[in-house]
Design a protein that fits this description.
The structure holds two protein chains of two kinds. Helices cover 66% and strands 0% of the residues of chain A. Chain A is built from ten helices and no strands. Chain A is elongated, with a radius of gyration of 53 Å. Chain B has two domains: 68 residues, Orthogonal Bundle (Rna Polymerase Sigma Factor, Chain: A), CATH 1.10.1740.10; 72 residues, Winged helix-like DNA-binding domain superfamily/Winged helix DNA-binding domain (Arc Repressor Mutant, subunit A), CATH 1.10.10.10. The termini of chain B are far apart. Classes of the chains: A mainly alpha, B mainly alpha. The interface between A and B is large, with 36 and 42 residues.
């Protein structure tokens, strides 16, 4: 079957034609078309001739300093990479479980100790040994004074408790409303005696009233 | 290294048309090659193809980066041809080649980037179709089509500039 060739095909297959990639049938069809089409012949001659000239162009010489510059920059890059690797060489160690656990434990210990010693971060001037000593000394005395005051308060509590328990049972009081239906009936209802939880509650209330909190612990002892 | 440097420099110059940019880009290509050398596998293709791919990627980045600058582009100093003593290379032929090279460069500037890179890779760098397909990461048909259209356009532009075909 004879192949039909046209000008569009010449443009589309020009590179194949120039590089000898057309099949025998395609080459024959192109030759037949080119014999009667001057435009296609001129196009093939123009593109083929120009490409040949371009392909024959030698490579341009690179600037003389380009190669030394590339070598210098690459060496610098190598040195920087080595430095970076050197700095980070230890980093994989800390990602091991045992080291990570150790670091976490130490951090937690510091946190707990620091929290116990101080309620917040020490200021800039509190880091001097004298400040630290005075602060620790003050805290110890505060704690001691607080403890001593607590023991003294307990004494008062026991005293109140003993007095309350030694008091005679109060006379039961009747409610006027309850007495109204039958005035002549004998009085059988009485209020219960003060129970032990009530006494304890009174004692605790007394402690609360007497205890001014840790801020005023160092104040002179009030005369009782 | 020198052989590859020349190849990379030529590719950069043909694409950018600027010797200083070509020099900087060549340097950048080799730094990138040095950094990514462990990722190169010979199974992926020849080293030259990989080198060309890296260069082409940097050129595309550079093209996008300097889109605004190109509007006020000035005429750049012409690159020098290698003046190797040869019986076939007389001063006349060297001068003629330099003139043709400059004309080709001007013609390439008038092509779209897609057509330009296809023609440069095929006709100035001498890569085969398979290598160009790897470098450009486009199908075979697209490679052929771009080369074909690029060649026709370049030949017409050069013809208008007075370049005679061989």
């Amino acid at each position: 079957m004879k192949m039909n060739w046209n000008c569009t095909l010449t443009e589309e297959r020009l590179s194949d034609l120039l590089e000898g990639l057309l099949s025998t049938d395609e080459s024959a069809a192109f030759s037949a078309h080119a014999a009667r089409c001057e435009d296609c012949t001129q196009l093939v001659a123009l593109v083929g001739g120009t490409m040949r000239r371009i392909q024959e162009l030698p490579l341009m010489a690179e600037p003389p300093l380009l190669a030394p510059r590339i070598i210098a920059v690459t060496r610098l890059e190598a040195v920087q990479q080595k430095k970076t690797k050197g700095w980070l060489a230890w980093s994989p160690v800390i990602w091991q479980t045992r080291f990570a656990m150790g670091i976490v434990t130490v951090a937690a210990t510091f946190l707990i100790v620091f929290h116990a010693v101080s309620t917040g971060m020490p200021g800039k001037f509190e880091l001097s040994p004298a400040s630290l000593y005075h602060d620790a000394n003050r805290r110890i005395h505060l704690t001691y004074a607080h403890g001593a005051r607590f023991v003294n308060n307990l004494r008062v509590v026991y005293e109140i408790q003993s007095r309350l328990s030694s008091q005679p049972e109060p006379v039961p009081a009747t409610h006027p409303e309850e007495q109204r239906p039958d005035r002549n009936a004998p009085n059988t209802q009485t209020t219960p005696p003060a129970s032990r939880p009530a006494i304890r509650e009174a004692a605790e209330f007394a402690v609360l009233m007497m205890d001014d909190g840790p801020k005023n612990v160092l104040e002179p002892t009030r005369s009782r | 290294m020198r052989r590859h440097a020349r190849r990379v420099y030529n590719l950069c110059y043909r694409f950018t048309g600027n010797t200083a940019a070509a020099e900087d880009l060549s340097q950048e290509v080799f730094i990138r090659i040095y950094r990514t050398l462990p990722s190169y596998e010979s199974a992926q293709g020849a080293f030259t193809t990989w080198l060309t791919s890296v260069t082409r990627n940097l050129l595309v980045d550079h093209y996008r980066r300097t889109r605004r600058d190109r509007l006020t582009d000035s005429i750049d100093a012409m690159p020098q041809f290698e003046e190797r003593p040869s019986p076939t290379r007389t001063p006349d032929t060297i001068a003629e080649a330099a003139q043709l090279s400059e004309q080709v460069q001007q013609g390439l500037r008038k092509l779209s980037p897609e057509l330009r890179e296809a023609v440069i890779l095929r006709d100035l760098q001498g890569l085969d179709y398979a290598e160009i397909r790897v470098v450009l990461q486009v199908p075979d048909g697209t490679v052929k089509s771009r080369i074909n259209r690029g060649r026709i356009e370049l030949a017409r532009v050069l013809s208008e500039m007075g370049v005679r075909p061989a």
